[in-house]
Amino acid sequence: MTCAVLCIGTELTRGELVNTNATWLASALTDLGFDVIENVVVDDEASRIAATLERLGRSVRVIVCTGGLGPTTDDLTTQAVASAIGVKTVRDEASLEAIRRRVEKAGRALTESLSSQADFPQGADILVNPVGTAPGFGVTVSGASAFFMPGVPREMQRMFEDQVVPRIRTLATRNAHQVRLRTYGLPESVVGERLAGVEESFPGVVIGYRAHFPEIEVKVLARAGSHEAARELCDRATTEVRARLSDVVYGDVDDTFAGIVGRVVRNKGLTLAIAESCTGGLVGHMITREPGASEFLLVDAVTYANSAKTRLLGIDEEVIRGHGAVSAEVAAAMAEGVRRVSEADVALSLTGIAGPGGGSAAKPIGTVFIAIATADGTTVTEKHFPGDRHQIQIAAAYAGLDLVRRACA
Amino acid sequence: MTCAVLCIGTELTRGELVNTNATWLASALTDLGFDVIENVVVDDEASRIAATLERLGRSVRVIVCTGGLGPTTDDLTTQAVASAIGVKTVRDEASLEAIRRRVEKAGRALTESLSSQADFPQGADILVNPVGTAPGFGVTVSGASAFFMPGVPREMQRMFEDQVVPRIRTLATRNAHQVRLRTYGLPESVVGERLAGVEESFPGVVIGYRAHFPEIEVKVLARAGSHEAARELCDRATTEVRARLSDVVYGDVDDTFAGIVGRVVRNKGLTLAIAESCTGGLVGHMITREPGASEFLLVDAVTYANSAKTRLLGIDEEVIRGHGAVSAEVAAAMAEGVRRVSEADVALSLTGIAGPGGGSAAKPIGTVFIAIATADGTTVTEKHFPGDRHQIQIAAAYAGLDLVRRACA
What we know:
alpha/beta, Alpha-Beta Plaits, 3 domains, six-stranded mixed β-sheet, five-stranded mixed β-sheet, 26% strand, elongated
């Protein structure tokens, strides 16, 4: 069953506010089993509100709207709806009484502008507002069921869950099921190529992609005659997707890459130490953002200056002078040094050139040496990342965490 | 001059992602002087994309679109546009060459799916992408100028500023001017109370707020008969706003808090050392994300385990055992320890309980001790932050950086 979300307000069309209401409603409607085909924002202009409602009413079954129900002069939704469906507005006595009680309880007087919130298009289905003054309402526009709610997120969410959901639940067709997988290690185009033909092999399945640097999220959406059948189809297609991406899928939508790496370290009963230079604390931040990091992370020595590498990690000044701070030798010495001072089982180090300054022909911006030191010895990997300073830092941090994961696996 | 923003992607209609692109573009277009009357999101469905473009083209002069230009099967924008304007797609050799160079530089092969990003509707005005593989393009749809850009925010923003703005600037009626100020240190409601009456004192000025935890951005938008007059009005109102918020405004829209703190340290010719525990590297990451950090940051010792505090910073085990790792005494010892080993002028330390575990009645979750050590001695501040783990980490990092700024001022 198709539906649309309409948000009304010039503060939104001007970009003064991020439209989290649209995201919240679209997600809730999708979870209910609706197919949300359009989210629209229009400014506070009655003719545009009316025209948009008529247009949406012709193409979807349910329209969920927020905004423009308050007491001020820019709140035009009720009038616009009445004009769109060709009725007058009438004042509802029960709603007026509820507004009066609420206003008087707050020690204020009932003004005409507050009273006008009890006006509704004739014949509307009134939605009470237990947490604010402006009630909502439902009407039929161009054949679609349309529901109007205040724009305040707290009031809107409560009204949607308590009153709109019971009215639309039976219209939803839960014949879709989706699984979202998180991948790291391949660019989007290669992930897409790996999955070429999956949609054809599993009719009813649509594969979607979302890039969130440096990760690619893969979405497997299945539609079938029933929710049961959709879930079963989704499971089969997801098994195929996982098999084709087995080297890069690290978890599902609730996982983070650093969280998964941390879990691998902890589950092996190992401890971790880190020495960072170009990434400047980012690896430590990613690891410690997740709860439970204290169970395995001993230390992250961000030895930015050469003197810090010598003093904290005991690296021979001659090694730095001879090879440069960005070198395989210094990366190895950093990993070994932080492992020695912390007595950790596994140590990761990163040293590189994030830019915008500091590059050379021999070691251009984006050059990063990553070392892993364990009881079995030390290995150093040289990487070259494209992008700006922050992208190089993020790419290096992910590459370092990936090496930790492989070292502990 | 009217315009509309169109964002394409099923991840948006389903509410899997907050549509920050629409907000960014609407705000940028408003700043340019356009009247943004509608923001639309449609799913990855070619006929819907085409129908929406035709509809918008009939009612606005400029349409700015993002999304659906990538290499995967759900990227349908180019085909949909070609069908909307009744032309074929043709491959552009110069764009193909640029994609090839970019792909080969990253050590990958040019595949057909990547090459397809060089396909454009016949006659399109190509917008090069210096920071990604998918170029954008401009066409005329139902009489409106329509521009299509990738959905990746970084690529979209760069393409909009470098290439779309020069093409549409002359169409805008610039009778508005806006200044955006960044503040740290007061909640949104208090910032609003401080600015009560400013709009009344400067008719034509609208004050807007945007919370970006823990910062509040204040926008001063002025409209007048000409751009000159709007700028002059905006300047006068902004002077008043700055005066009322002088203790919390730290910079303008292009500044970051860590960047400003770093600039203060560097301009004084001082060096900085950090010792973090509960913030786990976040302070170092914030500082080193900005170019130039190597000029003043010597080290950030993320001493997560107690053993690391002892080994790297030389903190007496008895101090940790006697007062607990989260204590004023340990915070002071961490700051003094990292200052001693690094020989930095100023040292910052943070130790606290970010949760979700580890809290107690005496030291609940959110308790953070922050110390500053200089040649003049050591001061410790005890803070209690609300929120979840990540919010506590961010709030503590900001508070620590703010203390560094004040110590160096």
